[in-house]
Amino acid sequence: MGGTMRATRRPAAPVMPPDDAGPKRRDVIVRPVPLAMVWQGPGSPHAAIAVPGVSLGSGDVLVAVEFATVCPVDAATVRGDGTANVPLVLGHEQVGRVAAIGDGAETADGARLIVGMRVVWSRRIGCGECDACRAGSPSGCATAREYGSDRLRRGWELSGGFATHVLVRAGTAIITVPEIVPAAVLAPVPCATALAAAALEIVAEATEVDGESVVVVGAGLVGLTIAAMLADEGARVVMVEADAVRRSRAVKFGAVSAVCDLTAAAADGRVIAAVVDTDGGQEAARPHAAVRSHDAVVISTGAATGGAITIVDRPDPRHLAAAVGFISNAWYRFPFERLVAERYPLERLDVALRAASDTPAVRVGIETASR
């Protein structure tokens, strides 16, 4: 079960056509009519809009959302933390099934897509032309679009995961996922799981982890996933988490111990090969003065001697592929499904978002498949 899980193949980044471009477009009428939940700013409830017709360009895919989860970024946005390009459709953690296909649409590894396939897709849509995109790293694309973050626009109303369908645009990395894996486990893969895979890649490239002590700060979904990934690589994982309820979960995800601060983590005198900080809110546990973020991982390698600091906040297609590979073989060994403790229908999205801020649950789920 161990061994490396890092993806070596870099999926190609096709050029993303503009909204109204392309000689070959396919107009699709969907029944029941797709609905998207539109958010207009702090204090405003979500409003459902109907999108009866979808125009698919070359490489576009219409996906029926099976299940979505509320990322801390979504909850923070609704609370008014930071800025948002309103109106927009939030949500970027979801799994779904292909409902309609534009000309030439394919998976990240070049396989032909077929209606009914179960898929996840990347958060960002690179331009396909810049140096970063051509290198397989759209995380560095200056003009990339992002699901659940871009402003609502005509022709791309189905742009976020809090909807019955998402119009997955050309240039997005799409990866098929196994039927056997629970939807609640797969939904966070484009964000939390892929971010964990990106963090593991950096740690493994910087230092040997097999048999070494690695400290993970924060027992949220990203932290628990990194702990499980590191444990599979043979690392001795120590979890640092201030909250007792979250701390109690750590051992089930591969940690050898869970403590409340870094001082306790180093109490046994072992050399710490790396510190992976997934929780900007735990000031007392932080090994450095990094920028606070709801969706960033800060990695300190050679932590005992004040080594290199790396911040990871945008996974690339190869990390999504690695995340799918990991979760497909780990979902039954680690209790990921139990981390989605509360679930709400799409029409109760506002209640779900409030619950995501108030509940000790790691993730809150949004069910859309029953429509």
Automatic annotation (TrEMBL):
Record domain Alcohol dehydrogenase-like N-terminal: where: 57-178
Pfam families listed in its UniProt record: ADH_N, FAD_binding_3
Keyword terms of this UniProt record: Metal-binding, NAD, Oxidoreductase, Zinc
Tagged with keyword Oxidoreductase: yes
Keyword Oxidoreductase: yes
GO cellular component, one term: cytoplasm
Region of interest called Disordered, as start-end residue ranges on this chain: 1-25
PROSITE patterns: ADH_ZINC (PS00059)
Domain of life of the organism encoding this protein: Bacteria
Family: Belongs to the zinc-containing alcohol dehydrogenase family.
Domain FAD-binding: 213-245
Lineage summary: Bacteria, Bacillati, Actinomycetota, Actinomycetes, Micrococcales
Cofactor: Zn(2+)
EC number from the UniProt entry: 1.1.1.1
Organism encoding this protein: Labedella phragmitis
The protein, known as: alcohol dehydrogenase
Sample GO molecular function, one term: alcohol dehydrogenase (NAD+) activity
